[in-house]
Structures are given as structure tokens and as C-alpha cells.
């Protein structure tokens, strides 16, 4: 139309110059045509921009230096960068519903439907940089999306920014994605801090750091709770789990009382083989420190039991020592030792496989480091990682061994929960935010992780967990109510392409509905042959409003790769897309 009006303007000038018509009339007509053409050209330009945005099918990339500059500018204002896009309001939603009602193919052409998803959604508004308040991350973030739609690439962007801000970062990746680890390492190198990166992967023990998940604790009972949390349980309070906790706690108390630092290898040794040696050491040490002239006094008991020192010491403790120097730790260890062995083995039948998985090669050294002085192996723990602002990547190798990978991730998250409790109690005034990223979270989530989501904010933890569907949590935890606890403790929801209908519905139901205007057109005509061919016709337009979803659940299944909808804490909804981070 703009071109037609421009041609009309030119023809008007040509006619006025060649034919005997008033020049002023021809110029005035040409100017009118030119003005109308300019208006049409402006509208055409805007439509052209819309069409360009709609066809944003090409994947974008961002280099590391650009990422560093962008992060520092955002961090100076207390913001985080989330790619490009726009705020999704009732205006964009109404446009979307109007297009859907009229037919996307009819309005934009069938060629648009041949792409990898509904790219036209991104053309409903002008695209700008999407920034969000850093403080929103304290409410924890949930990322959902099917395989291969961009969850890991979104992790790349969020992790890179946390590293550049100088904050501690812990990445737990069941798949062991090489790109995720390599990108985090390259960011550390790019900002001149290569020593910040710490790598752990069971498939690569030669270049992995050793992490002791039982090093950090305030109360001795924490260690037993940390391992007992891994025992499969439908209710969380069944007798097998309770008995396993008691046995673990008794052995931990025995180890600590004898001056030994508990680790997974020692726990397995005394649970599988019995606590005989440990109990003997603990009794001897207790007698030495609490009972005067104990060697002379116990000799009669040794003779009574014909040289069996352990039985003699237990009898001496019960009959003599307990009255003046009772030890609760010894009482528990003795009860574990005296428990019927056959029944004992049945009750710990679910605990022993877990300890076996966590202490089999190469995890013997990786999770229970006990090296001689002068070794060159990096030995660390979650508290040290956080204090030194390290970037820890934990690959669980779940593709090769899903059961062991799940156990490793679960116990490390339990250790992290203990660190959170310690920081909450003793270090709340001087802590940095701690960023924890858990990919494929359903593989490793457990009760301590729910506690970390629920109470970690007070200790400065920012959790970001990714999964494919919400049903994964229920399947892992064995309880739909616990799965809903996970969802309820994440204030920010980011949805990439989602194919599961239940997950789609959950995302859409959490967003208020809007009123969309609908236009109904009716046309009818009628010929009555009985009354002289009487003809009647009618035409009617009716505008009405209908309550619709701001984001229809089904539209989530049509999002292109790397495109997302985000519902942030505070009610802000964003339609965005992310570039691929390429260091």
C-alpha cells in the first residue's frame, strides 16, 4: 500500500507537469498521496519488525567477555541477566488468543508452522534485555523442561554470572555434562581465578578432588541422620530406618569417644563386621580415664570369662563402673553389640547396600579420604568450598550407575544442609550468597534437600533446581505431598518446552487469569417462497469478554528450544529466550 501511494504521488506530479491542469492542484494531490504513503510505510515498517521478531529461529550466542561485562553491569545495580525478551502482560496474551482464534497459519502463513515450535510468540512485543532483581533468587528457582530444550544452557548463564560475581557455586549434575563443567572452568580462567574450580566425578578419580561428606557437624546425631536419610522409606518413620539411625549413631559416638573421625569406610566396617573392636577400644579408654586402678579390678572378670576381654569388660562396666562413671555412648554401643545378630542383619539390610555403594572403588578414597601426610591429593568438604568461594562441579555419573550416583548426590546435599544449619546458627552476619545448582534434581532429592529449600534462605542459600516433570519428584520421594513441598518452596518458576500435561497445568494454574475480548460475527439470509418470495437478511457483530489463561497450558508444549516463560516472585511474568554460552 505504501508503494502504491508513492506511485500515485509520482504519477500525479507527472500528470500535472504534462497536461494542462493547475499545478497547485497537482502538487497538493501529490503531497496528500505522499503523506498517506508515509503513514502506510511507517505501519509497514512496524509490521516488518514484528515479522522479523516472529521469525527469530536462529540460535543466538554470547561470548565470555561479553558475559563478564554484562554481569558486572547488572551486578552493580543488584540485577541478574536472564537473556532477552519482554514482560508478558494481558496485552501480549490478548494478541496471542486473538491469533489463535483466527488461526495462526491463516494469519501468518503455513511456513511459520514448519519451525521448531511457536516462534511467533516472541514477536508479540519488542525484545529487550531481561533483568531481574538478584534478591528474587533467595526464594529459590525451579526450572522445568523436556530433554534438549535448554535447561543446561540456562544453567550455563546463571552459573557464569554467579562465578563472575565472586560467590560460592556448587553444581550437582547427575548426567555429568562435560559442557557444563568445562564452561564453569573456563569462566574461572577468564576472570583470572583458575584455582577456584574444583572437579569431582567418579568416572575420573585421577583428576577429582576428595570430598568428605561427614566432616562437617555440630551435633553427633547429625551424621547418623545424614546417612539414614538415604534409606528408602515410604513414610520416613518405619522401623528399619529408625533402627538404622540408632546403629549409625551408636557407632559414630563410639568412634568419636575413641578419638577417631567418622567416615563412611569405618561405618561400613563396624556395621558389617560388628562393633566388637570399637567397643573394646571405647571401654578400655573409658576405664583408663574414669576408673582408678581399673586393670587390677577388672582382672577377676577376665578370669571369670576365661580370657574373653570384651565380655569381661562389658560385665565390669555393667556391674561396677556404671554406678560411678556411666557413659551414654558406651550404653548405646553395648546394646548394639548385644543385639541378636540375625535380627540385626535383617534390620540393617537396607543400610548396608547404601554404605557399600558409597565405599566401593573409586569412592573409597573420594568420599572417605584418609591419606598420610605429604600427599598431593586435594581433600576438601562443603564448608571449605563455601568459605573459599570455590566453584565445585559434582558429576554423579548416573548414566553408568544410577543407584550409586543418586546416593552420592543425596549425601552431599545432606552435608550441604548441615553446613547451612551451621552458617545459620553461627555465621549469619558475615556470609555471602551460596548458589546451588542441581540438574535433574529428581535423581538426588531427599528430605534434607527439602529442608535446605525450606530453611536455606536464612543461611544465604540460593537453590536452583531443574527437572523434566513434577511427577519425577513424587516418584523419587514416594509421596506426592513431599513433592508438593519441593514445588511450594520455589518462588520462581521458569518453564521451557513442557510436554507433561500435569506440569503444564501446574504452571498455568499459578498465574492469574485475564479477560480477553472476543468478537462474534453472524450473517444470515432467508427467502420465504410462500409470501411472494419475501427475502430477509441480517448481519450482527457482538463483542464479549471471556476469562482465559494468561499462559494457556498447551502453549508450553509449543515453545521453541531456548525459549521460556518465567513467573518470578512478586508476580512478574516474562517471555524470554536465552543465547548459548560459548566461552
UniProtKB/TrEMBL annotation:
Helicase HerA central domain boundaries: 127-190
Listed SUPFAM superfamilies: P-loop containing nucleoside triphosphate hydrolases
Record Gene3D superfamilies: P-loop containing nucleotide triphosphate hydrolases (3.40.50.300)
Domain called TraD/TraG TraM recognition site: residue spans: 433-560
InterPro entries: Conjugative_coupling_TraG/TraD, HerA_central, P-loop_NTPase, T4SS_component, TraG-D_C
PANTHER family: SLR6007 PROTEIN, UNCHARACTERIZED PROTEIN YJGR-RELATED
Protein name (Swiss-Prot/TrEMBL): Conjugative transfer system coupling protein TraD
Organism in which the protein naturally occurs: Pelomicrobium methylotrophicum
